[in-house]
Structures are given as C-alpha cells and as structure tokens.
Automatic annotation (TrEMBL):
Domain named F-box: residues: 4-45
InterPro entries: F-box_dom
Compositional bias annotation for Acidic residues: 438-452
Record's keyword annotation contains Acetylation: no
Keywords: Membrane, Transmembrane, Transmembrane helix
Name assigned to this protein: F-box domain-containing protein
Transmembrane domains' residue ranges: 468-488
Organism of this sequence: Caenorhabditis latens
Region ranges (Disordered): 389-413, 435-458
Domain of life from the UniProt record: Eukaryota
Length: 496
C-alpha cells in the first residue's frame, strides 16, 4: 500500500482541496514539503471575528453557512478557561479546558494570527469587536503583536461602538492591495420583528478605500428615515448617503428617477427586489453613477435572490446574537444615544430572538461525526510546560530571574513553527503533530516559494531516477554484451 509520503505533490494538492480548515492546519505542520503544498493551495474563509472585552477574548472562524469554529478564552480563578465549539452555541456542547494563567488577549490574537495569516488564505471579512471603552492602547497592542504579518482580507469591519481609531490601524495589519472596503456596522432593535428589511449607510473614503457606516433595522418609517437620511448627509459629510429597502415593487413602477435639490442629487432605483437610493453632491455624480447604474440589485444582502448565500445568512442572524451570544451581542445598538427612550424595545426583541433560536434548534440535524477540533488530555509534565511555550516564565526561570527562550513575559512573537504548533497543541487547537525528520527549525522559518519547493522536490526525484538509470546502464551493459557474445558463438558452433 502506498504511503502518504510516496504520493506525488499534484495528487496531494487535490486531497488538500477537499480537507476541512483544521485538517489543513494540521497537515501543514507535519512536514516541510506538506506545508509547502498546503501553502500553494488557496483557501477562502468567508468571515472571521475577533473580540476582546472585560478580560475575555473571542475568535470565530466561519467556513460556510451554519459552519463555524468558535473559541472563547476568559479568566477563571488563578487560571483561564478555554471554551471551544463547532457549529453550535449550546453551552452544554462546549468543550472546556482549564489552564495555568495566560494573558487572554495575547492568546486570542496568537490563535487568530497562527490560523489565518497565511498567503494561501483569503478572507472575505474580519469583524472586530473592540468597544471604545476597551483598555487604553489596545489598537497599538494589536498592531505590535501582529506586525509584520498581514491578513489577506477584502473587508475590515467593526461594530458601531468600536474605538474611533479603528480605520487607522487597518492599513497596518492587512495587505492593502487586497482590501476593498472598511465598514462600521450596527443593528437597531425593533419590537416584534427579527428580519432586517432596511439599510442606511454613509459612504466616505479612507486612504482611497470606501468607508461605510452601516445601520440595519427590522422596520421602516419613510418620514423618520427621510429625516435621518438628510441629517447624516449634511452632518457626516459622506461622498454618498445610501438607503436600501427590502420592499418589492410592481413591474410598472420599475424605473429610474433622478431628483435634484440645491447642490445635491438623488438617484433612485426600484425593482421587484426592493428600492434603493443614493444621495450625493452634484460634483460627485459623474464618478459614482457608472458604479450605481451597474447594480443589478442594490438591496445588497437583504435580497435572498441576488445576495451571496453566506452574506444573506450571516447578516440575517445578527438579531439572534441576543439569544446565541449574550456576552457578544454588541452589534445590537443597545445603549446607543440614538436609542434613548426606546429601551422598551429591547426585552421584546430578546424574547423574540430566544423563540427564534429554539425553532432553529428544532430543525438542526444532529451531526454525529467527529469534531474537527477538540481537546486532548495533558499529563502533568505537559501542563507545567505550557507557560513556557506561551512565553511565560517557568518556576525555574523565575528563580534564576531569566527566560530560557530569551523572550519577555507574555511575548508570543518570534516563535518558530515547531514552537507555534506545540503551543496550538497545548491549547487544543490542533491534534498531536508528528514532525517529519526532514524538518528542522531552520526549515520551519524559511519563506520559500511553495511552487519552487515542490518543483525542487520533483526535480530531485527525477535526478535520482536518472542516476539510477545511468548506474544500471554502466553495470548491466558488460553482462548483456557477454551474454549476447556467448549466445552468438553457441549458435555458430551449432550450425557448423
């Protein structure tokens, strides 16, 4: 039976394309060649989340509709508790592990960086939950921790209450050429409904990229939002103020309208999907109208027919966070100054979210397959090594006043691939990794091109084959010639 190491790289690539996310991570770190194969096989992650508040970190990686990996880290007594789940918000299904005291913020960022910063991984959106009242200097800590590594991501998003310096740090942690937009998003509570039907957003620019401030509601009042439309336009100074309404029209009313008012112009569109309007200064119309006119459906992810299926599912589940993730539901604008006097809407919305979540769970098909990530059992010796691997001083190092690794306490940067994988094993992110003998610490840190490495491997095999053929020719030729000479001489003797 052919072993994995004997399979050609081209075949391995096809296998890698079929693997789930965590299996790719594990395979990537079994040998140097396998790592190069994984890195040469592109993977798309539609969305990821990172949150930090009150000493707790959250990492969520979405791989599809109703498919996600969730990791929550929080302090507990003299240590921390790590909770992991897959495709479920049910606390009874969470896998938990208690560990020695580790900085929850650094560990959360370390997991995010280790799993997602890779040139083979393209991410649709990274959503950051960093409340404005977060610890001072949190943005600077993120930049310092991630640098110089950068995400390959199309959109950076934050919640409505995130720190105002959010957009300024985007350029420091992403590959700027890949970034298409920046967004600040919030959901306004509405009693009696959990289905988003209206989007209002202001569009400005930040370093040449569109920067959206997006508000989502589950109801629509033409008079109220007409006032909000004008207010945001004249006070937020957007390049374009947009609103999108999921309210289908009759075919007879499907037409384009252009309205002028003083120095502004509003371009109105309608279809069976809904209506959408864009208000802008006249001086900006020429550079925007081609993009606006090209929209087949301007209702964005409100429209199930034209929206990306994942985006439609994800955004329609925002209200359910009230029931699914009570500690991480800041996307709902509870406490916003715009909602003063409307507190009576929150309780009905929470109740409706809980009822909707119960109905959703009734329709969930029980998955009996093995989880793609879980906790492994650690012996006492392994538990004692965890603080050192995570950049913390061991008891022995505290006595000597130094660190064997030469790193400051809590610093997880600078670890080589072997240490990184050991750390991820300890916290249960990946299964045990059996390192191939061909790998060394030096190899693990190389930044070689995957295609060149694989090509080099193939050329090495061909070179070895050529050497074998040459050896065979030199060794066997005299034997064959002798045999032929003997056969011919015997044949002549027989004939005579």
């Amino acid at each position: 039976m052919v072993s994995w190491s004997q399979i050609p790289p081209e075949i391995k690539r096809h296998v890698v394309q079929k693997l789930d996310f965590m299996s790719r991570i594990s395979l990537k770190n079994t040998s140097h060649l396998d790592r190069q194969i994984v890195e040469s096989t592109k993977l798309y992650i539609p969305r990821a989340r990172f949150g930090y508040k009150d000493g707790k970190s959250l990492v969520v990686i979405y791989t599809g509709i109703e498919k996600f990996l969730r990791l929550e880290i929080e302090k507990c007594g003299n240590g921390v508790v790590i909770q992991k789940s897959e495709n479920s918000y049910n606390h009874s299904e969470f896998a938990r592990k208690f560990m020695p005291s580790i900085d929850t913020f650094s560990l959360g960022l370390f997991v995010l960086k280790s799993l997602l910063i890779d040139k083979s991984i393209n991410i649709g959106v990274i959503e950051w939950d960093l409340p404005e009242e977060s610890e001072e200097g949190i943005i600077e800590r993120i930049v310092m921790f991630l640098s110089p590594a950068r995400f390959h991501v199309k959109e950076m998003a934050c919640l409505w209450n995130s720190t105002e310096s959010f957009q300024s740090f985007c350029s420091q942690i992403v590959v700027w050429e890949h970034l298409k937009s920046i967004r600040r998003i919030g959901v306004f509570p509405t009693a009696g409904s959990l289905k988003p039907i209206f989007i209002h957003e202001d569009e400005t620019e930040f370093k040449g990229r569109p920067y959206y401030k997006t508000s989502i509601t589950m109801s629509y009042s033409a008079e109220l939002f007409g006032v909000a439309f004008d207010f945001s336009f004249y006070h937020q100074n957007p390049i374009c103020a947009n609103y999108r309404l999921k309210d289908g029209t009759t075919p007879e009313s499907e037409q384009f309208q252009r309205k002028e008012e003083d120095d502004t112009v509003t371009r109105c569109y309608a279809s069976e999907c809904g209506t959408w309007e864009h208000k802008m200064l006249k001086e900006n119309e020429d550079r925007l109208k081609q993009r606006l006119d090209s929209q087949k459906c301007g209702t964005s992810w409100l429209c199930e027919m034209h929206a990306d299926p994942f985006d439609y599912w994800y955004h329609h589940n925002f209200p359910l966070r009230l029931a699914q993730e009570p500690g991480w539901n800041a996307v709902i604008c509870i406490g916003s100054e715009f909602m003063l006097g409307l507190d009576h809407l929150f309780d009905p919305m929470i109740k409706a979210a809980e009822e909707a979540e119960e109905k959703r769970l009734e329709n969930v098909i029980l998955d009996t397959s093995t989880s793609s990530w879980g906790f492994r059992r650690l012996d006492e010796g392994e538990v004692q090594r965890i603080p050192h691997v995570m950049g913390h001083k061991s008891d022995e190092e505290k006595k000597t006043g130094g660190s064997k690794a030469g790193k400051p306490k809590g610093d997880l940067n600078g670890l080589n691939m072997r240490d990184i994988m050991k750390c991820l094993e300890e916290v249960g992110i990946v299964e045990d990794v059996q390192w191939n003998s061909e790998d060394s610490d030096e190899n693990s840190g190389d930044e070689e091109d995957p295609e060149e490495t694989i090509a080099h491997s193939e050329s090495s095999k061909q070179s070895l084959l050529q050497k074998f053929q040459l050896f065979s020719f030199i060794f066997l030729t005299p034997i064959i010639v002798s045999f032929v000479f003997y056969f011919v001489s015997q044949l002549i003797s027989f004939c005579l």
